Every structure is written in structure tokens, then in C-alpha cells.
Amino acid sequence: MKKTYSFLIGIAIIVIAASQLCLASGFKGQSVSLESVLPELDSWELSEEAESFIPESLFEYINGAAEIYISYDFKELIVAQYKIKGGEANISVEIYDMGTGENAFGIYGAERFPDNHFISVGVQGYIEDDTLNFLIGSYYVKLLCFDGGDKTSKFLMAIAKDIVSRVEDRGNFPPLIEMFPKQRLIPNSEKYSLNNFLGYSFFSNGYLANYQIDDLEFDCFIIRAVDENSAKNMAERFLERKKDLPIKKRPFGFVIKDKYYHNVYLAVVKNYVCGVMKIKEGSEKIGAEYLDRLVKALREKD
After folding, report:
1. Average pLDDT over every residue of 267-291
2. What DSSP string describes the chain?
């Protein structure tokens, strides 16, 4: 009995010691996985110790921009500065852990533009002058090169590829993006909002894509709900907000004449709310056609 008691006390001491060690290390313990993603190239070396930031401290690093990252459930950021050996070039590396690939796509999509110069790195990336940003797994990575001269792009790509090689789950674009009609879609215009989609607190997990047909610019959207009842509730709350506007029923859902979004086409399919908006007068057939395409794609999903 005494041996058993002594053994249990020993285990308890080890557990307590380990817990205290974790508490003492605080944020460093949380940044282990991000540290493992930092690049290690023979020709580059850290010029200063890497720094980590969590939601409570992100404002210290990016101040006014922190709010949008936090709105996508940001987890942690690691920042490292690299200097090329025997040269003047420097590269700043920022790796944002967004928790999920969907949230990483959300912040990446919020900062990219359809006319960026897109490259094949990670899930997708783009390079502009001395900057290279890309999406990989649940990470959003931002690189900035100083004094790279005509080798700037080469330096950025080398760092980016090394980071990609260190990520085990490289992920892909969110599957719901494939539900958007391809005809007249503006490439790389898709975006994702975790909360307050279209400015409504009851809309979350919303996807938006931009389209253009001649001089008509319009948007398609898909909102993912927990279940079909939740989707119906979302649509009902939206219709309640628009109750003073002209609303007409159609085979799939409704058409609302909105002051800001012109004709809005809305439907509920399984656990999704989908729609088309910014359809101007005279283009109603386009709105109906694209809503029908969304409905068909979502019905066939899974």
C-alpha cells in the first residue's frame, strides 16, 4: 500500500510540475507549431528572435488591422526577420494561424484582388512588387522583401516554397466555392465571411462571388447554416427586415426589390441560404437564371 501511495504521489508531482512548466512558458508553448513552419534555408539566417502574438496582443503588431483578423477567429501570429548571408536583402515573414482552412481563406480573400498577379504556391498566392502573400492549410502567410533588387521575386519564392514544405496539411479552397456558377464569374473574386455576412448579425458563414455580364455587375452568395431549420430561420429574419419592400414569391424562393441591392433573389436549399443580388431592372432573367443554377448545384451537393 505504501509503495502504491508513494507511486501516486510521484505521478502527481510530475503532473503538477508539467502544468507549472506550461503556465510558465505561456505563449511560447502555444507557438511551437508555428515555429516549426518558419523557413530554414542555408543562405538565410534570422536577424533577430522571432516574436509571437495572440488575439489579445495582435493590436501591438498591426494595430488597426487586427480587428479583421480577429473577426476570422485568429489564433496566433509568428513574425520573423531574415537576412541573406553575405548580402543586403532582408525578408519579413508573418505566419497567421487562423485555426481552420476556411478562416484562413477568409482573411486571404479579404486582402486579395482579382487583378493581383497570382502564382502557384500553397493553395494559392500572389506576388506584387516586393510582397508575396499565400494561403496554405490553416495559415495565411505574408512575406515582404527589402533590398532584394532584381532578385526579389526569386528570394520571396524560395522562402515561400520552404514554408509550404513544412506544412503537413496543405488544404485546398473551401468546397462551397465550387457551387458558384462558372459562367461570367470574375476569377478570384470569391470571399468568405465568418460573421455579419452582408452586414446582418444573423448571417454567418457566408460566401460571395462577383459576376459581370456586359455592363451588369452582380453577386451570388451562399450561406451555410447548421441545419435546414436554421437556414429557414435566417431567410425568415432577412425577409422580416425587408417586409416593407415589394416581395414576390417564385418557384425557388423570393424576389425582393431592395433600395441598395436592387433585385435580390433568395432561396433555401437544405442547410443553405443562397441568392443573387444587384440585379438591375431589365435584367431579371439573369437573376432568376443564376438563382436556379445555385439551387441546382446545392441540391446535388453531397
Report:
1. 97
2. -HHHHHHHHHHHHHHHHHHHHHHHHTHHHHTHHHHTTS---TTEEESS--EEE-TTTTHHHHGGGHHHHHHTT--EEEEEEEEETTSS-EEEEEEEE-SSHHHHHHHHHHH--TTS-EE-SSSEEEEETTEEEEEETTEEEEEEEES-GGGHHHHHHHHHHHHHHT-S----S-GGGGGS--TTB-TT--EEESSSGGG-TT--SEEEEEEEETTEEEEEEEEE-SSHHHHHHHHHHHHHHTTTS-EEE-SSSEEEEETTTEEEEEEEETTEEEEEEEE-TT-HHHHHHHHHHHHHHHHH--
